[in-house]
Write a structure and sequence with these properties.
Layout: H1 2-16, E1 20-25, H2 28-42, E2 49-52, E3 62-64, E4 77-83, H3 90-98, E5 100-110, H4 122-127, H5 140-151, E6 155-159, E7 164-167, H6 192-196, H7 201-210, E8 218-224, H8 230-243, E9 247-251, H9 255-271, E10 286-288, E11 294-297, H10 300-303, E12 312-316, H11 323-328, E13 334-340, H12 348-361, E14 365-371, H13 382-390, H14 400-403, E15 412-416, H15 418-423, H16 425-438, H17 444-452, E16 456-463, E17 466-477, H18 481-488, H19 497-505, E18 515-524, H20 533-544, E19 549-555, H21 558-566, E20 570-578, E21 585-592, H22 595-616, H23 625-633, H24 645-656, H25 665-676, H26 685-696, H27 701-708, H28 713-731, H29 734-747
Parallel strand pairs: 1-5, 1-6, 2-3, 2-4, 4-5, 8-13, 8-14, 9-11, 9-12, 12-13, 18-19
Antiparallel strand pairs: 6-7, 10-11, 15-16, 16-17, 17-18, 19-21, 20-21
Amino acid sequence: MIADLVAALRAEARRANERRALVLAGERAACYAGAREALDGAGIERGATTLVADDGERLDCERVTPKRADTLLGRTREAVVLDCHDDCRPNAIGRTVGAVDGGGLLVLLVPTLDEWPARRDDFDATLAVPPYDIESVTGNFRERLVATLRAHRGIAIVDVDSRTIECDGLTDPPPREQRMTPAPPDEHEFPRAAYEACLTADQTAAVRAFESLREQDTALVVEADRGRGKSSAAGLAAGALAAEGTRVLVTAPAYRSAGPAFERARELLDGLDALAGVDQDDAPQHLDTLGGGAVRFAEPAVAVEQTGWADVVVVDEAAALPVGRLAEFLDAPAVAFVTTVHGYEGAGRGFSVRFRDHLADSDFSVVEARLDDPIRYAAGDPIEVWAFRALALDARPPVAPLVAAATPETVAYAQLDPAELRADEHRLREAFGLLVAAHYRTEPNDLARLLDAPNVSVHALLHEGHVGSVALLAREGGLPEDLRREVYEGSRIKGHLLPDVLTSQLRDERAGVTMGQRVLRIATHPAARSRGLGSRLLDELRDGVDADWLGVGYGATPELVRFWHRNDFSTIYLATTRSERSGEHSALMLAPLSKAGKKLRDRHARRFVERVGGALSDPLADLAPDVVRAALAATDATANLDLSDHEWHVAASAAYGPSLAEIHPHVFRALALRHLTDPNSTLPARAERLLVMRVLQGRPTEDVADALGYHSTGVCMRALGDAYKPLVERYGNRAASEERVRYVEDTD
């Protein structure tokens, strides 16, 4: 029965160059038996099949775990079998779907559909953070998933326990016309072979766009959904550039993402007889050419250090990298950013919204290319349509005209109930689409977290019923004494970022007593930004949530620190290492909502000011000075300044006379910290950057002078003395005044 059904599905998929899905629902053993029958009926060899499962019966084929499903990215399989009995991980579903080739089969092994939403599994366990247990996790995501499986075309559903077919999944599509090989462009600078290897007109146009990188100060942006051949286009272009002697540096979150690019580059160079005499089987990430060119791979953290070597940098899966990291590649002579629009690792729209500003402000001439025609399967493939809907990969904010007139006065605040969101597809897609557009790492897992996690709540501002701003909050703290002690003694606690850091790293055993709400995400529609909607939403949260504090943790930039401080959040922590996700040093900030919350905020703001001076001269020595300025200004604690008469003599003499600040560095660090944490003390921004870089971070004078535009080190040091004059006048005692008068009178 299953074999006959799947044979018909497979024949239909091949005829239309589409994919089909088979849902086998019931007990696991019966599902695996059905999967074997399905693969045999479809005529799919085990060597062309991948099983995605933690455990369970084998299918005598390649097997990866759901957590490692990302190893399928960039690969093509005739069939992929995903076992969802013990772990229904949304990210794994997305990555699995993307690996199935045209004419291929996706097989889902699931519990009985009517019972599945009520079952809890290993992924649900990741959503159950203390004090909640796994039974507190809801099944909204899977209830929605089941509904989409039953509603979409091309998906067959079989109850393996009763051996009945709920839906045959057949669509009777018309045969697809044979894809015509696109002709090379009439005028081109790359070798003709590069264009003859293209499979669609879109891919040909993309390779042609890469020719622009032969000119310096050019940035190319290539966008596409998965399966459109963008990485292959990048590889063909990289090979063509290398053949003419260009050094091409390719980077991506991992080499597997760039693997197709290197395969195409090598095939092209081999066909052109341009490869140098290196055993390329032993060096797949390093292609050298006879003309002196090369194609090399480096992971992003390494690649940013190698832009001086490269003539051209190609950043594949750019949307999966933080904006700060992407901006570092703008130091290259020419650069291409190749990105997925609806991705499982990052959202192309987030890339567009956040990174395009950096491109616009750069000196690069920007060239655009987009690929829409699928290569591995036909346009309109029903399984792609289903995956986009089920995982909200194509969720979008409201169209701009619907919220363009939104102001703090026109919007209404609402807490959005997850069950109601599940039932209201339009509002769910607006809210989640806004998060996708604003945050570069929003993933399918986040959709499940929004719908099912018991510690997460969704809050929005609605303009005429449409989502103009949205925030996700996570409950943290309120921990029992035994758990607080375990964290203090070295254990980690998931889902409680602020109490965890404050307890384990900052050694505050009582930090987990208070209960707070951490802002996981907050986003405002681009058409309504800079009008105060984000602040209005935070005001509503401050008044409406039951907590001792609101908190936030994020990759610190000057703009973000200032935004949170304007909304009464105070800096209490700066991470000493850069976040792998954001590429920035993370900041933690608190806004107290109760007396207990204020005590916690005050305690840690004071401790932050006490320790930050030492951190700035060592692990934070490379932190951007404007981040330092913003973070210190946002502490709501003023640095202590307790100098002796002798130390005040030293400070005044260095500011007005011949003394050297380097001889007594602690004096000048204390003055700089006092000024930068004093809301009533002001200096020009350039002078404050000088205090941060030279005095607090101890950077070499030559580097500081160059970075801040001083003509010489002498001019830089005189500017430093000038910066200290108003500080001596503001904070100095009688001894400082006496020393100052001596030099001022001598000058007169």
